[in-house]
Design a protein that fits this description.
Length: 100
């Protein structure tokens, strides 16, 4: 290990934080949508089961307030954003605005 004035160049920092169940549910949803995107945006026939599994692996319940219509809306937006992103030339920027 190299030292600079007696200090290791590589310093370990331990961060302490707590992730909320909603954050963990969101991460599980992201994983499920990414899997569909990697599969050419083909909607998974067992999306809800996979979501249940990914949530249970994090020791949380799956979000119960999400509907099939919500899933379709997210899928549609992901596809659109990806198409816009892929159409950009090198150095161009994609600006996305979310409304509440």
């Amino acid at each position: 290990m190299r030292l600079w004035h007696g200090t290791p160049l590589l310093v370990r920092i331990r961060l302490s934080f707590r992730v909320t169940p909603i954050g963990l549910q969101a991460e599980s949803l992201v994983e499920c949508f990414q899997a569909e995107m990697w599969n050419g945006f083909e909607a998974s026939e067992n999306f809800w089961e996979v979501l249940e599994i990914t949530c249970s692996q994090r020791s949380i319940s799956a979000p119960s307030h999400i509907t099939e219509s919500d899933l379709q809306q997210v899928r549609s937006r992901l596809r659109t954003y990806t198409e816009h992103w892929n159409a950009l030339a090198m150095g161009e920027t994609l600006v996305v605005t979310f409304s509440s």
